[in-house]
Amino acid sequence: MAAAARLISRLTLVTGGGSGIGRAVCQRFASEGASVVVADISEESANETLGSLPSDLRGQRHMAAVVDVASKESVKKLVTSIQTHYFQPPSVCVNSAGITQDNFLLNMEEDQFDRVILVNLKGSFLVTQAVAQALVACGAPKGSIVTVGSIVGKVGNIGQVNYASSKAGVEGLTRTAAKELSRFGIRCNCVLPGFISTPMTDKVPEKVINKMKSLVPLGRMGEPAEVADVCAFLASDDSRYITGASVEVTGGLFTG
């Protein structure tokens, strides 16, 4: 539940907004007054999220859009269409699009590694670059870019050498972008979820889920809304002196 209408008049782009954490971010931001662009590779999923968004606060106008974050052409087309529709670039962006293609290192195919890096890491770079370029070009006084990483980018995870590598890269991307873009008033931060109940985890066997829960000091899986809460904080002026940071949303997992 939103604590305040902190995001009124903010135009927000959320990639991967069609499901899971991305959908929860869209819903949370809309509840705080933002106009939300729900971007996803699945038009159907994006429209489902769009239909769930409240639009009863001042000046809110939401839209759904199809994007392949791994394609520079697709990302540029998305940002251009947003500017055409709203007459401004998004001042808030959440990079939530991501995939997994798990396998043990000894068995992983090259294309499994490449595809995950392409979507998770290159996709975050392309969207961050396009949004930042648009903000700088129009002289926007501030912006906030939040990228969804993962705790496994810090600690690794068996069977996820590609995913862990992509999420470690996302943190390096975020810290570097924060240093380069701060002079333009653009803040860049990372959110690192732990074990979160999403469509990705729905496929995991129950015995594995129970094992995962036993590793979490708070004793449960996290909810997408709990990640969205942190994204909303980082998008708002409540975090105006925070940039280049990684915030763990893990229930205490891997705290040592």
Chain-averaged pLDDT: 95
Radius of gyration over all CA atoms, rounded: 17 Å
Tally of strands: 7
Fraction in helix: 40-55%
**Quaternary structure of the protein:** single chain
* Backbone structural class: alpha/beta
Overall description:
- The chain is an alpha/beta fold and 256 residues long.
- Helix content is 43%, strand content 14%.
- The chain contains eight helices and seven strands.
- It has helices at 20-31, 43-51, 72-86, 110-137, 152-155, 161-181, 206-214, 224-235; strands spanning 11-15, 35-40, 63-66, 92-95, 143-148, 186-193, 246-249.
- It has a seven-stranded parallel beta sheet, sandwiched between helices.
- Helix 1 crosses helix 8 and helix 4 runs parallel beside helix 6.
- The longest helix has 28 residues, at 110-137.
- The protein is globular and about 50 Å long.
- The model has no long low-confidence stretch (mean pLDDT 95).
What is the secondary structure topology, with strand pairs?
Layout: E1 11-15, H1 20-31, E2 35-40, H2 43-51, E3 63-66, H3 72-86, E4 92-95, H4 110-137, E5 143-148, H5 152-155, H6 161-181, E6 186-193, H7 206-214, H8 224-235, E7 246-249
Parallel strand pairs: 1-2, 1-4, 2-3, 4-5, 5-6, 6-7
Helix pairs in contact: 1-8, 3-4, 4-6
